[in-house]
Every structure is written in C-alpha cells, then in structure tokens.
C-alpha cells in the first residue's frame, strides 16, 4: 500500500491548470502548423497562421490562449493499492482549480444551470475517478470550452447501423456544427457502453494525442475514415472553407448491450489544452 496525501494532488492539479490555460498540447501545435502548411484555401490559411501566432504569444506572455478558459474536467486513474489521506479529494481538487483560476487571471465561467448565478471561482470541477491496478495516480486535466462542447451529440443507434452508422454520426455532428465550434476541431468519440459511459468515453478520447490511433485496427479505421470524410466537408478553419476541418478523430470503446449501439461525439475546438501527471 502507498499513502498519498490529497495536498499532493491539489498542488499537482494547481500547476496543471496554470499550464493548460496558456499552452496548447504539443500534438495540437504540431497538427496546427502542419495544417497551415498544407491548407490550400487562402482565407483558411491566413486564419491558421493567425491562430498559430496567437498560441505563440500566449505561451511567451503566459496569458490565456483563449478567452474561454473552460470548465475544469479532472480524470483520476487511482491505483487500488493507493490510500488517500488528508482533506476530502473533491475539496482538494476544487481548491486547486480555485487557486489556479485566480492566480492565472483566467475567466470564471461556472454557474448554476437554472439561476445562471456564477460561482465566481470556476468551481466545482467535473471529476471522474477510475480504480486501476498499481500504486500510482494518473491525473488528467482538461479545461473544456463550451463553444465546442455545445456542438456535441449523443446517438442511440440501432445495432444494424453498424460501422457506417457510427461514421455517419461522427461526420454529421461536425457538419451540423459548421463554423460554430471554431474549427479545425478535434473529435472525441465514445462507442458502446451505456448512455452515460458512452459520453465519458468521448470525453476521455479528447485526452489522447492528436494523430494517435486506437489499438484496435477496426476502430482505428473508423477514426481514419471519419477524419477523411470530415475534411471533405470543406468547412475549413473558422468556416473559411478549406481542406482542414478537423485535426483528428479519436475513438474509445466499451462493450454494450445486444440491443444497442450508443455513440457519443464530443467536439473540441482547435484550442486543445490537456495536461497529464502521474503521482
């Protein structure tokens, strides 16, 4: 058994939130630069150039890379041999987010869904926990903006719709979104499970490196085909038309019921901000 104090988790998330607010992920930076080089549309190429310059300035000046500094999503994979001591985990996580958003001068965007009253400190965070083997804790931090989150969809497909139905759901979600999620987008997809686990898988898919593929060959082929069809939509960067509407498609899967085929499509804008730490 290994003892980890939640203060250690708090300090790790605090640093992750500060970094994520001002930095795109390395795989996103690479994909955006490659898109700028290969883009054929004049307006879209200019838009990609501007977004890349924005990312450089944000990193240099340590300022938010986007005005929507997101709702904090924290995923913890906790080894079953870990014993947590100290303050309650949820309290430690929210304290980290609160500190980071004040110290980083990040916009506070969390509110009551009915009254719309702002909590003023960007808490509470969305927290997902998974119990895994081992004596370590893997923490993934994802600040999720809502221009893209609002464009996400969940489908309860019929099993007979199969792979073609899955690909169509992914492509149609991006097509319906158009320019609203600030493309080029990164598309996270959950396949299988139940209504709720499917949506979590789609969110988790967004924490993968852009350009990576699922270990299962058949699911990797879904990612490749969906990306191809999306980039044939000619929506382009910021809707200016072009050959890069999406930077990547990542799919995660789970076993499901014989009567169902849930598919969740979680859209992420070009501003991919994700940090990972293992304690």
Salient structural properties:
279 residues; alpha/beta; four-stranded mixed sheet
Structural class: alpha/beta
Give the helices and strands as they follow along the chain: EHHHEEHEEHEHEHHEEE
Helix content: 25-40%
Instruction: Tell me the strand order in the biggest sheet.
Output: 4-2-5-10
**Count of individual beta strands:** 10
N-end to C-end Cα span: 14 Å
Q: Per DSSP, what share of the residues sits in E-state strands of 2 or more residues?
A: 15-25%
Question: Can you count the helices?
Answer: 8
The unreliable regions are: none
Shape: globular
User: What is the averaged pLDDT score?
Assistant: 97
- The radius of gyration over CA amounts to 19 Å
What summary fits the major beta sheet?
4 strands, mixed
What does this structure look like?
The protein has helices at residues 6-22, 26-38, 42-61, 89-103, 146-149, 162-177, 195-205, 217-231; strands at 2-5, 71-79, 82-85, 126-132, 137-144, 153-157, 185-192, 246-254, 261-268, 275-278. 40% of the residues lie in helices and 24% in strands. Strands 4-2-5-10 form a four-stranded mixed beta sheet. By secondary structure, the chain is an alpha/beta fold. The longest helix has 20 residues, at 42-61.
């Amino acid at each position: 058994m290994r003892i980890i104090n939640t203060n250690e988790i708090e300090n790790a998330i605090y640093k992750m939130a500060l970094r994520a607010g001002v930095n795109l992920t390395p795989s996103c930076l690479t994909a955006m630069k490659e898109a700028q080089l290969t883009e054929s549309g004049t307006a879209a190429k200019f838009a990609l150039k501007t977004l890349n310059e924005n990312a450089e300035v944000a990193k240099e000046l340590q300022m938010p890379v986007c005005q929507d500094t997101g709702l904090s999503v924290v995923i913890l994979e906790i080894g079953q041999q870990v014993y947590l001591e100290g303050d309650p985990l949820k309290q430690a996580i929210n304290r980290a987010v609160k500190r980071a958003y004040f110290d980083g001068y990040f916009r506070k965007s969390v509110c009551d869904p009915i009254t719309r009253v702002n909590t003023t400190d960007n808490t509470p965070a969305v927290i997902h926990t998974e119990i895994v083997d081992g004596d370590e804790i893997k923490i993934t931090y994802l600040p999720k903006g809502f221009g893209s989150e609002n464009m996400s969809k969940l489908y309860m497909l019929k099993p007979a719709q199969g792979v073609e139905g899955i690909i169509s759901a992914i492509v149609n979600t991006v097509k319906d979104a158009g320019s609203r999620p600030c493309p080029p987008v990164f598309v996270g997809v959950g396949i299988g499970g139940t209504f709720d686990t499917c949506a979590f898988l789609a969110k988790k898919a967004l924490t993968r490196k852009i350009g990576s593929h699922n270990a299962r060959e058949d699911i990797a082929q879904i990612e490749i085909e969906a990306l191809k069809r999306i980039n044939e939509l000619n929506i382009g960067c910021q809707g200016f038309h072009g050959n890069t509407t999406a930077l990547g498609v990542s799919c995660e899967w789970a076993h499901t019921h014989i009567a169902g085929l849930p598919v969740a499509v979680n859209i992420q804008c070009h501003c991919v901000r994700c940090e990972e730490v293992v304690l």
